[in-house]
Amino acid sequence: MDDHSDLFRKSQEFLQMINQQKDFIQDVLKENERLRYQIANLQGQPSSDPLVAQELALLKKKVEQLEAQKTEIERRYQNVEAENKDFAQRYVEIEEQNNNLANLYVASYQLHSTLDFQEVLHIVMEIIINLIGAEIFSIMLLDEKTNDLGVLAHEGYDENFKFPRVHIGDGVIGSVVKTGESYYINQAGSGYKVDFLHPMACIPLKIKENVIGVINIHKLLVQKDAFTAVDYELFSLLAAHAATAIFSSRLYSQSERKLTTIQGFLDLLTTSGQRG
After folding, report:
1. Count of CB atoms within 10 A of residue 34's CB?
2. Which candidate, 61, 59, 74, places its Cα nearest to that of 24?
3. Closest Cα to residue 131, out of 194, 8, 224, 218?
4. Residue 133 and residue 235 in one domain
5. Bridge-based pairing state of the strands 183-184 and 201-207
6. CA-based nearest residue to 138, from 196, 212, 178
7. Of 108, 143, 176, which marks where a domain is finished?
8. Structural domains in the chain (count)
9. How far is residue 171's CA from residue 214's CA, in Å, rounded to a whole number?
């Protein structure tokens, strides 16, 4: 917020400076016009008069000085205007970053507000669509028994598409799981075709150093050309929060099923004992 306020203050100062310089240039132009008028009148008088010639030379020299001063002010004005545009752009970028981080904070709170596994997945997908701007993506989880990944949730793929399972270390996705390092490329051109095994971005879902899955992004929305600096921060924060939420809700769901099974078995034993 300090950067935000500082940029806003500096932008206001530059705007005030620009307005002052505009007024000064106008004064210089008026003075220049007045002197040129005097020069024209003096030039119309007999040139043999030494006083007229002297005054004419002084006026011409003053006009030259004013012209040089005006040129310098215009140069400074252009520099200040360019710098002001730069500050304005940075102001917009920080505003956007603050908004995205605020949205992510809300989304992170939502992720940890429920232990319902399907609801957590839905929240993660909404974050990927609305904050990252992904059109086609998938979420994969690691099966520790088989050491491969299967698709848990997805968006944008053809309904008949058969998702392959990916082994640790194989290809882009498998390498991300093995190393724990994210993978990114720039948005592809108009001829780009979605290849599941070669995503634009692959972000590991990590709990400390343990990778439990990945988020694969294969295509961005039409209005988004490429990933931004804010996206990389969002990926990093999302991966940690999403991993924790998915892992916790999955454990909870499994424990709930086990408890239900045990309770059902106990009820069955109790009922059988009463009949006996």
Report:
1. 12
2. 74
3. 224
4. yes
5. antiparallel
6. 196
7. 108
8. 2
9. 13
Q: Which amino acid is at 234?
A: L
2: enclosing H helix or E strand: helix 2-43
SS3 159: coil
And the tokens for 193? Answer: 């075709």
Question: How far, in Å, CA of 29 to CA of 62, rounded?
Answer: 13
Where are any strands of DSSP class E within 198-276? 201-207, 210-220
Note down the domain range covering 223: 124-260
Nearest 5 degrees, angle CA 22-CA 24-CA 29? 95
Residue 236 lies in a domain: yes
- Does residue 118 belong to any structural domain of this protein? no
Q: Are residues 27 and 135 in the same domain?
A: no
Are residues 65 and 27 both part of a single domain?
yes
- For residues 128 and 221, membership in a common domain is answered with yes
Residue 148 shares a structural domain with residue 212: yes
pLDDT in tens, the chain (276 residues): 455 566 556 666 666 666 666 666 666 667 667 766 666 665 555 555 566 567 667 777 777 777 787 787 778 777 777 777 777 777 777 777 777 777 777 777 877 788 888 888 888 898 888 888 899 999 999 998 888 999 999 999 988 899 999 999 999 999 999 999 999 886 555 566 788 999 999 999 998 888 999 999 999 888 787 787 778 877 887 778 888 888 888 887 766 665 566 666 555 556 655 555
